Amino acid sequence: MNGERVLTTLPFYAYIKVAEGCDNCCSYCAIPQIRGPFRSRPMEEIIEEAKWLASQGVKELIVVAQDTTRYGEDLYGEYKLATLLKELCKIDGFAWIRPLYCYPDKITDELLDVINSEDKVVKYIDIPLQHCNEEVLRSMNRGMNKQEITALIEKIRAKVKDITIRTTLIVGFPGETDEQFNELCDFVDEMQFDRLGCFAYSAEENTPAAEMENQIDDEIKLKREEIIMTQQAMIMERLNQQKLFTTVRVIVEGFDKFGECYFGRTEADAPEVDGKIFFTSDTQHTMGDFVDVVVNEVLDYDLVGTRV
């Protein structure tokens, strides 16, 4: 690495970019114009950087790209994310390997098999779905319909036991009707996603969506965002209640001096976007330690527990 890479995250986790650019051309997104077409990095180059990160004490490696599941298509003629993950698992030092931004239409059975079988690959998948209504998805220039998305979620849960599924949604897209939004609410209730982020549509300059008719008032968009997130909070409350009195493995992120407790994340929580677990311990810990914690309380999106 010769010192080119700089760690800007907490010292025990790091992001590794496996590709640049994007070919999906979603109608709301300017990234293909800004960053150009999708370009995978050679696997050997990624492995070299990952080994360097491991030598610096990184324990959680987070694999990212604009479309992580497309990795390798341009270089090797086929999707190679599953192969890359298996190679990364061979590197000493990593405890967790977490791929993010997995586009739904490129999630292969091979990838799911790797997530299921490799101990270092966390049982967690991040799938940006954006919507479920077929007309809205077509306007977004997305590649799947609701029936295909539902079948994919069912297959993921069948192939990978106890997997955490995270998604992101956009509400208030140009032309989204009350009926289409209600369909999305029903979809969220039906799918019971473990993690979900919802964003009110925001027009990006020089994108097709910004020029579409029937732009929706900000007040309506924000109200729809609030409704989805309130709905998801209720789902999270129910799912977290099921974790009461179970033991979870936690990576320590720090100490809250006001709460007089440690905090960290389980493998079901990606940094910066998901919840945390706060726990007490009779033992002193440092960032990056792994500890077992018994969950004994739920706080909205977060958990509270005691170190075993």
Textual characterization of the structure:
The protein contains 9 helices and 13 strands. With 308 residues, it is α/β, with parallel strands linked by helices. Helix 8 (178-191) links the parallel strand 7 and strand 8 (195-200). It has a 5-stranded mixed β-barrel. Strands 1-4-5 form a 3-stranded parallel sheet, with helices on one face.
Annotation field: number of helices: 9
Largest sheet: 5 strands, mixed, barrel
Strand-residue proportion: 15-25%
Strand order of the largest sheet: 9-10-11-13-12
H-E string: EEHEHEHHEHEHHEHEHEEEEE
Low-confidence stretches: none
Structural class determined from secondary elements: alpha/beta
Distance between the termini: 39 Å
- Mean pLDDT, to the nearest integer, reads 94
What proportion of the residues is helical, as a percent range? 25-40%
Using only C-alpha atoms, the radius of gyration works out to: 20 Å
The total strand number stands at 13
Features:
alpha/beta; 24% strand
List the helices and strands and how they pair.
Layout: E1 13-17, E2 19-20, H1 31-35, E3 39-40, H2 43-55, E4 60-64, H3 73-76, H4 81-89, E5 96-99, H5 109-117, E6 124-130, H6 134-140, H7 146-159, E7 164-171, H8 178-191, E8 195-200, H9 218-241, E9 247-256, E10 261-265, E11 277-280, E12 290-299, E13 302-307
Parallel strand pairs: 1-4, 4-5, 6-7, 7-8, 11-13
Antiparallel strand pairs: 2-3, 9-10, 9-12, 10-11, 12-13
Helix pairs in contact: 4-5, 8-9
